[in-house]
Specification:
By secondary structure, this protein is of the alpha+beta class. It is about 40% helix and about 20% strand. A hairpin with a 2-residue loop joins strand 2 and strand 3. Keywords: Cytoplasm, DNA damage, DNA recombination, DNA repair, DNA-binding.
Length: about 200
């Protein structure tokens, strides 16, 4: 129904961002809300997917059309809903995802939250060969150098919890970030790499 929205980014939370357009504030669920940190109060364009349920109408947002395409392929698989699909694309290693699907790497796929063996097998069955070679989402944007604090790490872990990772999983990797200085977005990316090992 919607292809994209252009407006001012006014708010970032662990689960969603808010874009004001035409005097309305739209809640848009995204894979990594803190990847928008350097865009607050700026006009931006986000690609959208609109989901209508009995109890809600939800907007899901993406940096690029490729990222949106990966999301749409994922939610076409039985057992994968929008929240799980966001958790998968948050890793920003869609090249690795495509390779795992095409090579039947069930072990890799089950590392994503809420993806069991059956769902991983269904992903391979439904999606093998369906991704275009250029389906890698362009999330390697230059990052703003911001002095990190414990708050940045707390925000990152809050976002990871929102994606479905367990507190016990996050507790294991947290010590590896002691004494580091990263932005919230960097902490999320680094954490996702550790969680996928």
């Amino acid at each position: 129904m919607y292809d994209y929205i252009k407006g001012r980014l006014t708010k970032i939370t662990a689960k969603y961002i808010v874009i004001e357009a035409g005097g309305l504030g739209y809640i848009i669920h995204v894979a990594n809300p803190y990847s928008f940190s350097d865009m607050v109060s700026q006009d931006i364009q986000i690609y959208l997917h609109h989901v209508v349920r009995e109890d809600a109408q939800l907007l899901y947002g993406f940096h690029t059309e490729d990222e949106k395409s990966v999301f749409l392929n994922l939610i076409s698989v039985s057992g994968i809903g929008p929240t799980t699909a966001l958790a998968i694309i948050a890793v920003s290693d869609n090249e690795g995802l495509v390779k795992a699907i095409d090579s039947n790497d069930i072990k890799y796929l089950t590392k994503f939250p809420k993806i069991g063996k059956k769902t991983a097998q269904q992903m391979v069955l439904d999606l093998a060969g369906k991704f275009a070679a250029d389906s890698k989402a362009d999330t390697d944007k230059p990052q703003k150098e911001v002095p990190a604090s414990n708050l940045a790490l707390d925000e990152a872990f809050e976002a990871l919890l929102a994606l479905g990772y367990k507190p016990s999983e996050l507790k294991k990797i947290r010590p590896s970030f002691e004494g580091t200085n990263e932005t919230t977005e960097s902490y999320i990316k680094s954490s996702l790499k550790k969680l996928m090992k």
